[in-house]
Amino acid sequence: MLNIIRIEPAPARRRAFAAWAVAQEPKVRTCSATEFAVPADLYASMPEDILIGSTVDGHRYVSPELDAPFTEPALEPAREPAPAPVSDDDSSIPDDTSTEPASGGGSGGYACPHCPREFTTRRGRDTHTRAVHNEG
Ligand SMILES: [Zn+2]
What we know:
Blueprint: E1 4-8, H1 14-23, E2 29-30, E3 36-39, H2 40-45, E4 55-56, E5 59-60, E6 110-111, E7 118-119, H3 122-133
Antiparallel strand pairs: 1-3, 1-4, 2-3, 4-5, 6-7
Bound molecules: zinc ion.
């Protein structure tokens, strides 16, 4: 089963988006004059900056970072506000919002609320939730 997400990049990002698309293996193809057919698993890991302003499956893409209640300078694009501090956890937990790229396998911290899977990005988790559990 292959989930395809139709993405129409913002005009200003189209060139960067196309460059990203042809760099994938296999290439991401266009599915219309303006849209790219992006496999869901690729979508989960694609760079945020080429998605900003795009239309995803007919809906305007909302950046989790840009949509955050308090926006931080672009120096830390991956940072998200924590919903609440965990009080009874030991204080030596590493800061998992660091900019270090996930090397796969580790617990990314975005757990699916419906099944035991975990994801390294919120977008990955959301994509999974939408695809597997049919939430929109
Ligand atoms: Zn799930």
